[in-house]
Predict the 3D structure of the following.
Amino acid sequence: MAQKRLAGCAFPVAIGIGVFFLVLFLVSVVTGPMGKNLLGLPEWLIVPKPHPELPAEVVFHLLGFPITNSIIATWVTMVFLVSFCFVATRKMALVPGRRQSLLEFIVEALLNFCRSVAGEKNGRRFFPIIATIFLFVAFNAWMSLLPGYGSIIAHTSEGETHLLRGANTDVNTPLAVALISFFFVEIIGFSTLGIGYGKKFINLSGFVESARLLSKGKIAAALSSLVFGIINAFVGIIELVSELIRIVSLTIRLFGNMTAGEILLLVAGFLMPWLFSLPFYGLELLVGFVQALIFSALTLIFLTMAVTSHGEHKEESAHH
């Protein structure tokens, strides 16, 4: 006799799942604001009202430098990544175990991503910085979803403070990563083109050519070169401003999305704890991955553009 099935599951299993979610729903209602108002439950059974704060809270001082809860969360992420890489590569084998296989899968995926955008040579060249940015941003986002982030209270001289806070929700962390991205682009640009890389920011060749032509009495040609010199100088200023705007756009994009996600989870957890916030945790896992991918992809594109301009420069020189 065929066993009855419901929604693709055995009937008893489906009933058990239904009962589980019903109990979870009732607990969520009771421990939320509705339960507090209707049943008059004690405060320790009620999820407290969220108080999101944009500035990171100072936990302690180290050599006079304030250590915030977002800095501690950053240290936790770094320790986790270093520890995982150490454990996964401690005993390398031709037939990898689960940890080594997972690490090799991540490394290969990121390396192939760099190759697909920048090519074989430059892909390997850019891989360390791109992989570091991706893993750091992604794990900052994912680890902030763990229990303890935003809930563990530390007693300090300044009062009660949350011990851990998602690092990406402190604007200083996205800004630091954006500055690292910016400086690596400029350093690789100068290392590839030399001083000539700065010509896209400060291009005085038109003025020099105009002065040379004017000294030879070619007034019309000198005026034409002067006009092009002014245009090139203006374009250089635009290029410089656009490079600096990258820092702002990368910072605000990551900070805004991560902070909005944190506030969404706080509100969902307050309105209906346990049940209502579960789908949003899944959503935040995806958002963390997407934001890490966008940040690293934009950095990779900026690096590739710098190298591509070098190739075009050489081709133009060979043509002339």
